[in-house]
Amino acid sequence: MIKINHLSKKYKGAEFFSVSELSLNIDEQEIFGLLGPNGAGKTTLISMLSSLIKPTSGSFSINGLTYQEHKKELKQLIGIVPQEYALYPSLTAFENLSYFGSTYGLKGKDLKDKIHNHLETLGLSKFAHKKISTFSGGMKRRINLIASILHEPKVLFLDEPTVGVDVQSKNVIIDHLKKLNASGTTMIYTSHHLNEAEDFCTRVAIIDNGKIITKGKPSELITSHQEANNLEDVFLAITGKALRDYA
Amino acid sequence: MHKLIASTYKEFLLLTRDIGGLAILFLMPILLVITITTIQDGTFKIIKETKIPVLWVDQDQGEIAKTIYEGLANSQTLALIENTSEANAKELVFKGDYQLAIVIPKNLSIDLEQKVNENVEGIMAKFGLEADSIPPKKTEIAQKEVRLYFDPATQYAFKSSIKNGIDQMIAKVETQSIYKAFQEQLGEDSSQEFFDTESFISFKEIVPEGTTDALIPNSTQHNIPAWTLFAIFFIILPLSINMVKEKNQGTFVRLRTNPISYATVLGGKTLVYLGVSLIQFGLMLGIGVYLFPSIGLPKLDISGKIALLFLVAFFAGLAAIGLGLLLGTLAKSQEQSAPFGATFVVILAALGGVWVPVFAMPSFMQTLSKLSPMNWGLEAFYGVFLRNVGLTELLPEITLLFLFFIATTILAIVYNNRKNTV
Q1: Rounded Cα distance, B201 and B189, in Å
Q2: pLDDT (tens digit per residue) in A96-143
Q3: Chain A 19-48, CB below 8 Å of chain B: which residues?
Q4: Which domains does chain B have, with CATH numbers?
Q5: How much is the ipTM here?
């Protein structure tokens, strides 16, 4: 589904590559977790795959398509749940979703039904006509997710989709994502919640300094590290315990 | 088309949800045009209806001083207050108590009379009309100067008009003295009118005529177009701030990943903000036509011009929006867009001739002013309001405004695509 060949990104003025010679294949209907400490290159990789930034070198294709040749089709094929709440605070949930849905060509009853179904599933129906500025963090996260899946993307990029939300909201979001995956959506997911990743992802890659250090099914990675009881132990064993502050 | 409609509706919602911003967008230009017109009209009335107190120091005590005094006193604009000391008058003016002191020098009347008489005698002698026909020897008479002390805060225009007025009066007195001297030399009775000393050449102000009545330009007719245009261009501020907000909110990032072109996003903004500028313009016209007369200001005459006025406003609005779109695309923060936008509009307005007429600018600035879209807009508005021009005469200006919109919008799209396209 996603083929990445020697993909690199070095930002202007940066000393090091944020993503360096990264190659990876992700199969259809996988939930692939990109895990790594701060500054490892996870968001940069997702930004390149979702056409937000230009790679310095290397190439990739999604469903056999590239942005250079099939930009419009690819944008219709993917969905991205950004780390920030990418919503208009002064508009209501319905107005936000209605607008973002229409940018994918959705309209009329079809658009309305899709919005109401997702709002219902994610427990937000009664807040449909409230302004986003009045929503809690968890509610905004759920609307942020709906805005990215209204057009039923084949590939969904999730950049820390549960960051800063309560346990209840997190469960609702993860359950909804699992249902979407079951219906055929391939997902590429980044998170610092390793327990969540262990449960949610079919495969993960641990990235550091822009390179994949290891990859595999969470259970395989845990068993391959003798002293590891969970994915977090594997992560710490590979990336170390030193702080990763950067500016 | 569906995406453009959705973008337009979203922009409409964003704008109407910000009630404070919307109020500022409509009320501030109205406040601006009322304030400026009231001040300008008031100044005009003050000059016309109330007299400015001026100190009068007469060291001459002769006929000339008396004539100038009467001339100034009858001018309807100045109230002369006599003062005996030049030093005291100077101090009062420099302190700011008075705008002006006029000091008539000692012996002005006597010396002028003597000078004129000598000159006339000399001429008569040359023509052989004098008994001895020998030109009389000229006495050394020092040149006289009427001293004007102005308050340093006095505006140039007021200074200039006073100086011109006094200059004209002195010239008239000098002419009268010369005629009188000739009359005396010719042996005529100087108490009788021998020469007609009134000006032979006068001037008349001709204004362009409308279909029925002659159009008399007034402060409203000048201010509404200038300040409406200023307000229309101020739309670049909320528009660029709206775009910068989208970048900061993350919604712009989402739109970049969605299958919607930047041109469509900008199209939605253009339609909504164009609507705003046309409503703004309609309100300004309404203020000029209905509110101004009720608060004692001259009424705005728009009879038979509404369609052309809205046509100019439409293209001026487009030009302003194009600039706003470019600024919003280039700016990364509100701290960049707001001060730059505000200052740039003021510069464009100054260059465009909103404050100082273009003809009064230095030649380099006059050339620069031709590059200001506000100048094109102002010329088009003045054309409709004050010169009664038709669509054909407006074509150069509205074409320039439209091309400016196209150029700035294309620049915005190209810049965005170069920066963000993968």
Answers
A1: 27
A2: 999 999 999 998 899 999 999 999 988 899 999 999 999 988 889 899
A3: 48
A4: 2-45+215-419 (no CATH), 51-203 (3.40.1710)
A5: 0.83
